[in-house]
């Protein structure tokens, strides 16, 4: 008689061990998350290196195909361009942006003082017409809102300056990521080959083929969307800077940089960027603020109707409803990065669901 028949509950021992380990993980979830955060922090240069290599790969492919350049020369050309752009940004653009932020922080008190004076005048006028004694409640509410707004804006701008100061510590990580990304680009075929070997080793032939085909599809979707959106946002940021200079809006470079960055977020991005641009210009000159608002709306329409479709086309294959849903869910879970990456991730989920549903319908011989 075997041991398993003598001890009928022996088969449950692995399940009990797994359950015990899961209990320990859940019971120490804070420590588990802390360890994960530390691991992400340690491997962040590798993650950033992969992201850099992924973004630069299409340009490297273009140089290799059209200029008939060898891999080493195409990598050299790309990184010379990247270093040149970074040098221009650090030496010319960054000081102006930092000066704009510093001046904005310095002018905040003056802006709130102007606003407070205007609000006080309006409340005084309201007191003359107030018959029901609601003016004190309105006055207290406005003062509370102004105080919270002032504190909130100061907190944001202080955080921005703090991040800028800490940029020197991040600079070395960026350099390390750039160096690692060179090896990703140089040996990308070897990495892809090893990944294929792993997939084939763990899955049968048909399943492995489907996984690799799906991987190619996802790679195409992500690369086209991210690179296309980046080019689109750079163009919009440049046009915005020229427009704000013509309008003579204050902090033109800073505001156009904000609008260019927020434009990476589909649908909501231009409106998110418009809020600080209009608010800051409003303190300087209300008429200019109206022109800035009109210009940003016109720019958003130009991007949505002409520039965006021309560069991106229908890369993700999602309707506006699903794009908005992806932005809301991604933003709620992962912030700004989630708002941006939520759209291609939702597109990947859509592809998976379509494949699964089509497979089920084919199995039942149903054609719709």
UniProtKB/TrEMBL annotation:
InterPro entries: AI-2E-like
Major place of residence: membrane
Annotated Pfam families: AI-2E_transport
The organism's place on the tree of life at top rank: Bacteria
Locations listed in the record: Cell membrane
Transmembrane portions of the chain: 7-26, 32-56, 76-94, 164-185, 230-247, 253-283, 290-311, 323-353
Example GO BP: transmembrane transport
UniProt keyword list: Cell membrane, Membrane, Transmembrane, Transmembrane helix, Transport
Coiled coil: none
Membrane topology classification: Multi-pass membrane protein
Name of protein: Predicted PurR-regulated permease PerM
């Amino acid at each position: 008689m075997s041991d398993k028949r003598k001890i009928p509950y022996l088969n449950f021992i692995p399940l009990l061990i797994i359950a015990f380990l899961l209990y320990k993980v859940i019971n120490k979830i804070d420590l588990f998350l802390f360890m994960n955060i530390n691991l992400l922090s340690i491997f962040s240069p590798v993650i950033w290196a992969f992201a850099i290599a992924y973004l630069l790969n299409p340009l490297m492919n273009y140089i290799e195909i059209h200029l008939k350049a060898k891999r080493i020369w195409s990598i050299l050309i790309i990184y010379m361009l990247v270093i040149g752009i970074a040098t221009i940004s650090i030496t010319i653009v960054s000081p102006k942006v930092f000066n704009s932020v510093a001046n904005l922080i310095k002018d905040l008190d003056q802006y709130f003082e102007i606003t407070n004076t205007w609000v006080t005048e309006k409340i005084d006028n309201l007191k003359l017409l107030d018959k029901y004694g609601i003016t004190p409640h309105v006055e207290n509410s406005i003062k509370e809102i102004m105080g919270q707004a002032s504190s909130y804006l100061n907190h944001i701008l202080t955080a921005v300056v703090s991040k800028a100061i800490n940029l020197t510590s991040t600079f070395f990580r960026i350099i390390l990521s750039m160096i690692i990304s060179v090896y990703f680009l140089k040996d990308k075929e070897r990495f892809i080959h090893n990944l294929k070997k792993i997939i084939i080793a763990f899955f049968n032939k048909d399943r492995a083929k489907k996984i690799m085909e799906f991987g190619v599809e996802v790679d195409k979707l992500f690369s086209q969307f991210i690179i296309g959106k980046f080019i689109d946002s750079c163009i919009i940021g440049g046009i915005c800077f020229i427009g704000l200079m013509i309008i003579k809006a204050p902090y033109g470079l800073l505001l156009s940089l904000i609008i260019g960055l927020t434009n990476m977020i589909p649908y909501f991005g231009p409106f998110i960027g418009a809020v600080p641009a209009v608010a800051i210009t409003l303190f300087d000159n209300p008429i200019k603020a109206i022109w800035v608002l009109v210009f940003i709306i016109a720019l958003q329409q130009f991007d949505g109707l002409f520039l965006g479709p021309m560069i991106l086309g229908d890369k993700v294959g999602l309707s506006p409803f699903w794009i908005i849903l992806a932005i809301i869910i991604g933003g709620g879970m992962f912030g700004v990065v989630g708002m941006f990456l939520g759209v291609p991730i939702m597109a990947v989920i859509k592809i998976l669901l379509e494949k699964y549903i089509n497979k089920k319908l084919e199995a039942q011989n149903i054609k719709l």
